Amino acid sequence: MIAVLLADDHALVRTGFKLMLDAQPDLAVVGEAADGEQAVELSRRLRPDVVLMDLHMPGMDGVRATELITTELPGVRVLALSTFDLDENVVAALRAGADGFLPKDVSPEELIEGVRVVHRGESAVAPRLLTRLIGTFVRTTPPRTAPAELSGLTEREREILVLIARGRSNAEIAAGLAVSPSTVKNHVTSLFAKLGVRDRAQAVIIAYEAALIHPGE
């Protein structure tokens, strides 16, 4: 059973999400928070598997709450929710450790699958939406010095990192490089470990900030 914590300042939204999630045999809503502080407090107490985190809440917002939760409770996954597809707070939440992002007007099926995806340890952001988001809101940030971890990547791992940053899925990377999907998966796992990132979102941010790729490429 996947334990889910809901964090949203609108009670009606929480009620709707709870009805959708509790109707699934493998999901259970274990708590509700009306702001970021409550989300952090309940995460510490309940240790949910997944937190559905609205990014726009009064007081402590969802970005700060995400940062605290992912830092203190690495076993808790955060799925960020926003009213807007292109929102700088989504990139901030991904930087803070969120495992995925969904717009709040997603279908019940997409919401349910998103919870399951992040619980499996995968990123619930469509690759091309991810690169569009990060390309939009990282472009105004001056490139930083490439992290030392990049020097530890093999040539193939660096190549795959650039392809990930261009929005390619593992299957597309495998087809383009004429290798098996399992080989790509192994390379991705290795480069994530070397970069010290949890998922594709954080890897893409590093690629943009280190100027390995530029918006529009």
TrEMBL record:
Which InterPro entries does this one have? CheY-like_superfamily (IPR011006), NreC/VraR/RcsB-like_REC (IPR058245), Sig_transdc_resp-reg_C-effctor (IPR016032), Sig_transdc_resp-reg_receiver (IPR001789), Tscrpt_reg_LuxR_C (IPR000792), WalR-like (IPR039420)
Q: Does the keyword DNA-binding apply?
A: yes
Q: Does the keyword Metal-binding apply?
A: no
Question: For the HTH luxR-type domain, which residue ranges apply?
Answer: 146-211
Using the record's annotations, give every residue carrying the modification 4-aspartylphosphate: 54
In Pfam terms, one family for this protein is: GerE
- What positions does the domain Response regulatory occupy? 3-119
Top-level taxon: Bacteria
Keyword terms, alphabetized: DNA-binding, Phosphoprotein, Transcription, Transcription regulation
Per its UniProt record, what PANTHER family does this chain match?
TRANSCRIPTIONAL REGULATORY PROTEIN NARL-RELATED (PTHR43214:SF24), TWO-COMPONENT RESPONSE REGULATOR (PTHR43214)
Name the record gives this protein: Response regulator transcription factor
Q: Which organism is it from?
A: Nonomuraea monospora
